Amino acid sequence: MTLRYLFNIVHDSHDKDAVTREGFDSYQLSPTCSNSEKAEEQKEKKISKLLQKKDVNTLRSMGLGPLGFVNNTLRKDCWYELLKSQVHIDNTIEYMPRVDKHKDEYQVILDAERSFGGIVDQNLKSQLKRLLVELINRILRKYPMLNYYQGYHDIVCVFIMCFSWDVVEEKGLVPENDLLRDKIDMEKLTYCVEAFTLLYLRDFMMNSLDFSFEQLRVISALIKESSPEFYSVFNFDENEPLFAIGSVLTIFAHNLKPIKSGDTNLHKILFQIFDMTISLQSMHLPLIIYKNLLLQNAPEIMKQIEANSDVFENDFDLRHGVIQTVLQQKLCDESLWEEVLQITRHDSATASKKVLKRVRLNKYSTLLNTACGKPGSFKVATIIFYLNEQTKMNERYKKEKYHGVPTKSKAKALVQRLGHFLPSKYNKWSRVSLLIGIVAILYHLRTTRSLSLLLSLRYMVSTKLKDLSHMNINMRLINHIWMDPIRDILKLGHPTR
């Protein structure tokens, strides 16, 4: 079932509605036409009328089309109406016992300090950071079963920037003693963040990565269905696409920061991804987008693999390194993103049953209920039930992994598995130092039950790979990529990284 088919259903059911007919025409616009000021102005008027009528069904179709909800003034109200239709949150009800302080709040503060880097006005930046911490802590204290992960703050930043866009566009607060929270609708903002978290992000907010890796496997299965050749080259049946973890956990918010000087059009791309995800009520959509992003770059990826096949002794390192490098080069290509989103609009709205059968998803996954691509309304009590069951299942998964396995065997298996990722061209002691550092990180990751260090390791490696993006990779000439590995690893988790 394609997104266009879903739109047609809405169109047919509102055939006598002039606004909907206009919305259908707007959906049909090509990407070139949709970028015109006239098209934006026309769609703004249509969306404004739909908001007045609270026509949620037609709003969904507008969010799926080119331009999404057009601008953040309209977008914040559209998101609120859609999310309110998907779950009803009654603030007078305590859905589970609150806590005065959540165990992950220190990490929230550290991540907030690194947020909103493109904001010049220091007063505004400071207030944005405080608002970020306040919102995240409010959610975590209200639903203490949720575990914070590094990347969640990127998603919350998207909502904050959407709701405060008018203030940010004015380049600051005047006078300086103005409070940001007085200039935005805090009630709607809080509702949107809370609803989105409960409906879309539960899989990522466990105390292990198991359910997150399940979603990565869906990407592999989607690739197999769309391009068996690409799937075979990368041997995705044995190798999980770990390179996608940051994009999936943040719904591309880490890749396409909402605020970075000069990237206004990329902000629009990111907001459109959220428009489509919320309109379709689907966490399948970011996975499908990532699949399309990979396949659109497949020729260049294959070319670079062939050009550098003799550089790496480890095929896993070669494939993942090339993908990271090529995608880093392409992430700021606005035309590529427009093409990917347009392809996605004509793609399957959700992963097919055939795809899902290839992946062992926990039966309470967001992909199967609250964000499965079939718009519906859920009670918070039902979502809390899903959350409780996911938490129990997650604990069982963890116990099954280690049940009856001797400590010595665990250590040996870990060293062997890690050794698979290590460059072979360095001497024994360099490899040992790298192993020690990684083992230390994994131990700390397990004891703190935080994703921050793992993602930091991923970002450290991707940053080094990004250095190669200025050339035809030419990895033969780069001998220092993995030199002194323990130095960088020991920096992970440092508050100022």
Question: Explain this structure to me?
Answer:
The chain has 497 residues and is an all-alpha fold. Among the domains are: 3-70, no CATH class; 406-497, no CATH class. 62% of the residues lie in helices and 1% in strands. It has helices at residues 3-13, 18-28, 31-34, 37-53, 56-64, 72-86, 105-113, 122-142, 152-163, 165-169, 186-200, 210-226, 228-233, 245-250, 264-280, 284-296, 298-307, 315-330, 334-345, 353-357, 380-402, 407-419, 428-448, 452-466, 485-491, and strands spanning 87-88, 378-379. The chain has a two-stranded parallel sheet with strand order 1-2. It is globular, with a radius of gyration of 23 Å. The chain starts with a helix and ends in a 6-residue tail after the last helix. One of its GO terms (cellular component) is endoplasmic reticulum membrane.
Share of residues in strands: under 5%
By secondary-structure content and strand pairing, the structural class works out as mainly alpha
Largest β-sheet summary: 2 strands, parallel
Helical run tally: 25
Unreliable segments of 5+ consecutive residues: 4-34, 461-497
Name the strands of the widest sheet in spatial order: 1-2
3D shape: globular
Helix content: 55-70%
CA-atom Rg in angstroms: 23 Å
- Mean pLDDT rating: 79
Ends distance: 44 Å
Count the E strands.
2
Order of helices and strands: HHHHHHEHHHHHHHHHHHHHHEHHHHH
